[in-house]
């Protein structure tokens, strides 16, 4: 039997926490995961039918350069869990206003050797009959993107981790963390470890003041829909699509591999409490409906199957940087910020595990996770783990 390199408590069983556990187990650590609900928890940001992954990263070019490795981490994870919960494909962007998007994407995709090209506007009505053409200025196809299937990933990863010896504590809400002692209190009991990783998603500010200045929960509405009959086939064959405009701003995931058509809002509310109600009101849905009418033809003829409230954790400023920082001498905080937490989850978990294992310095890990390293510096962070 291999000797454990130490015991780590992970708080939170979303993609960040489970990925960190996965990277730690592979390095020979003993891991305990505390989750306030069931595992996986339907109230987690990570719990959904699909998530987008891509190389085209808009103005966040630092993250664009991390994406090839993020894709590789997922392939490694799929190998371990024995299922590839991923549907590769192109991602199409529909631009309606002068948004700062094309130049940085062209630069990053070219540097990464990934293909992208413009779609003639005249082709849109036939290729994308669901798209509203009014106001369209540019359509761009970016390759090497696709859909991840999170519920399946979380479930299989939980099984894999359980089989690998991770001690799961479900329905165990951590009430307090002592970052110097390495203890957590849950259900009235104190548990001790060599290190504690807080991966508590939209609840992070309830457990630590460390990132309260930079991170805020964001209540978001999404809708699952059935399209009008004449658009059913077009949606079945559709790619992932993102509409970028000042008034519009939505993303859509087509119904593939047993999932439903989903449309979500690209604008963050930066408001709400993840412990609060999850009932989508007319007010929650107002902006999404307005934006969707600008992006999709005949949107009022779609039938709503479910209106869902979920939470992102986002930065208070527009930087959208992951907050990955040591807290005290024994704790780490791992907080995804914005809409890229799922696609980068396994890579960020790997980064935190590498820092705990002493493979990278704390400062370098924080800078790397924030997407603030040059491509050369980031490449040097590829750890053996
Ligand atoms: C609608 C929507 C669409 C998105 N689209 C994309 C996308 O297309 N691509 C992409 O990459 N990302 C996307 N994201 C972002 C991504 O889903 C999140 O960034 C990511 O899932 C966050 O993972 P996490 O593990 O940090 O948080 P979570 O998944 O929320 O996990 C945190 C866990 O910690 C638990 N917890 C909290 N506090 C405690 C406590 N005190 N004790 C015990 N347990 C606790 C929670 O119950 C939860 O299970 C989207 C998010 C949303 C909401």
Architecture overview:
α2 (61-81) packs across α5, α2 crosses α8 (345-356) and α8 (345-356) packs antiparallel against α9. The strands form three sheets. Strands 3, 4, 5, 6, 12, 13, 14, 15 and 16 form a nine-stranded mixed sheet that branches. A six-stranded mixed sheet has the order 7-2-1-11-18-17. It has a three-stranded antiparallel sheet with strand order 8-9-10, with no helix packed on it. Helices cover 28% and strands 28% of the residues. The radius of gyration is 21 Å and the shape is globular. The protein starts with 6 loop residues before the first strand and ends in a 5-residue tail after the last helix. A hairpin with a 4-residue loop joins β8 and β9. The longest helix is centred in the first third of the chain and has 21 residues, at 61-81. The chain has one domain (7-380): FAD/NAD(P)-binding domain. The chain is built from ten helices and 18 strands. It is an alpha/beta fold.
Topology readout:
Layout: E1 7-11, H1 15-26, E2 30-34, E3 51-53, H2 61-81, E4 86-95, H3 102-112, E5 116-118, H4 124-127, E6 138-148, H5 150-163, E7 167-169, E8 174-178, E9 183-186, E10 189-192, E11 195-198, E12 215-226, H6 232-236, E13 240-244, E14 250-253, E15 261-265, H7 282-295, E16 303-315, E17 323-327, E18 331-335, H8 345-356, H9 362-369, H10 375-380
Parallel strand pairs: 1-2, 1-11, 2-7, 4-13, 11-18
Antiparallel strand pairs: 3-6, 4-6, 5-6, 8-9, 9-10, 12-15, 12-16, 13-14, 14-15, 17-18
Helix pairs in contact: 1-5, 1-8, 2-3, 2-5, 2-8, 8-9
Bound molecules: flavin-adenine dinucleotide (FAD).
The site of flavin-adenine dinucleotide has 38 residues, from α1, β3, β12 and β16.
Domain FAD dependent oxidoreductase: 7-354
Cofactor: FAD
Pfam families: DAO (PF01266)
């Amino acid at each position: 039997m291999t000797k454990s390199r130490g015991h780590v408590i992970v708080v939170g069983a979303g993609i960040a926490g489970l990925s960190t556990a996965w990277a730690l187990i592979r390095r020979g650590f003993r891991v305990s995961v505390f989750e306030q609900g069931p595992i996986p928890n339907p109230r987690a940001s990570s719990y959904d039918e699909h998530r987008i992954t891509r190389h085209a990263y808009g103005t966040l070019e630092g993250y664009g350069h991390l994406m090839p490795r993020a894709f590789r981490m997922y392939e490694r994870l799929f190998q371990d869990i024995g299922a590839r919960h991923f549907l590769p494909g192109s991602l199409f962007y529909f631009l309606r206003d002068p948004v700062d998007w094309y130049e940085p994407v062209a630069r990053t995709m070219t540097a990464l050797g990934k293909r992208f090209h413009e779609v003639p506007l005249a082709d849109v009505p036939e290729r994308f009959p669901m798209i509203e053409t009014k106001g369209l200025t540019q359509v761009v196809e970016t390759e090497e993107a696709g859909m991840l299937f999170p519920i399946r990933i979380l479930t299989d990863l939980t099984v894999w981790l359980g089989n690998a010896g991770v001690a799961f504590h479900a329905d165990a809400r951590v009430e307090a963390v002592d970052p110097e002692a390495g203890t957590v209190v849950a259900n009235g009991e104190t548990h001790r470890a060599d290190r504690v990783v807080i991966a508590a998603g939209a609840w992070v500010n309830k457990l630590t003041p460390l990132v309260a200045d930079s991170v805020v929960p964001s209540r978001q509405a999404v809708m699952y829909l059935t399209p009008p009959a004449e658009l059913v086939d077009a949606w079945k064959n559709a790619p992932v699509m993102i509409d970028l405009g000042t008034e519009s701003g939505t993303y859509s995931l087509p119904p593939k591999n047993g999932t439903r058509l989903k449309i979500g809002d690209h604008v963050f509310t930066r408001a709400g409490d993840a412990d609060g109600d999850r009932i989508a009101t007319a007010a929650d849905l107002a902006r999404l409906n307005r934006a969707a009418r600008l992006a999709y033809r005949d949107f009022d003829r779609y039938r709503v199957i479910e209106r869902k409230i979920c939470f992102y954790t986002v930065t208070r400023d527009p930087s959208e940087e992951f907050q990955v920082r040591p807290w005290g001498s024994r704790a780490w905080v791992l907080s995804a910020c914005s809409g890229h937490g799922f696609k980068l989850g396994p890579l960020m978990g790997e980064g935190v595990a590498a820092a705990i294992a002493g493979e990278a310095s704390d400062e370098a890990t924080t800078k790397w996770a924030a997407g603030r390293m040059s491509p050369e510096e980031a490449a040097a962070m590829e750890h053996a783990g």
